[in-house]
Amino acid sequence: MRDILQEKQKLNRIFQDISNSCKNCNQCCFTYGWLLPSEIENYDSVVDINDCVYCLDSFEKNSQGERILEKIPRCKYYGKNECQIHKMKPFDCVLYPVKVLYNTKSKSFLAVLSLDCPYIESLSITRRKALLKKLEQYFDKMDFNLRQEYFEMVKQWALITEPKNFRYSIIKEFNSNG
Predict the structure, then answer these.
(1) Measured CA angle at 38 (ends 33, 41), to 5 deg
(2) CA-to-CA distance for 29 and 44, rounded, in angstroms?
(3) Which of 31, 42, 69, 169 is deepest in the core (most CB within 10 A)?
(4) How far is residue 162's CA from residue 151's CA, in Å, rounded to a whole number?
(5) pLDDT band for position 2 (cuts 50, 70, 90)
(6) What is the DSSP string of 119-178?
(7) pLDDT by residue (tens digit) across 63-83?
(8) pTM of model > 0.85
(9) What pLDDT score was predicted for residue 131?
(10) Treating both helix axes as pointing N-terminal to C-terminal, what angle do 2-14 and 125-141 enclose, rounded to 10 degrees?
(11) How confident is the model at residue 178 (pLDDT cuts 50, 70, 90)?
(12) Structural contact between residues 76 and 84, judged by C-beta atoms closer than 8 angstroms
């Protein structure tokens, strides 16, 4: 857990000026709220999907009370235009607007920066390039065990979900070993 906290602090420093954009955004936090296995004990209402992937239970329910897994929910911890658990939000949420994608054909991972995020859209080309460089360095130095755990989670969710279409810039590509 200590490694996750240190990595979250590093990411918070990289994205230290994002919060102003977040408060006026209201586009984010439509997410499954993916959780690392090492994080699940920190949250109530955790859903285990296919005995391999964990997420926050923010799902809408149908008339029979069954979760609607196909519809990406608004996170249950989002309210008043901000994260209500900001200091303890999951690693996947802290990483945003960075996403890691898994290619099932090439069995490789791609760390990308979402260009649909209003904060990223607001950056000049120079600042965006500098951010991409910082993020590449972040991934180069990221705790190896955490990266392995996170990439395994990404791989597992890629096997059970449909990828979303969004605009992005590539930060770094990793082989299947991370």
Answers:
(1) 75
(2) 18
(3) 31
(4) 17
(5) low
(6) HHHHS-HHHHHHHHHHHHHHHHHS-HHHHHHHHHHHHHHHTTSPPPP--EEEEEEE-TT-
(7) 999 988 888 888 988 888 888
(8) yes
(9) 97
(10) 160
(11) low
(12) no
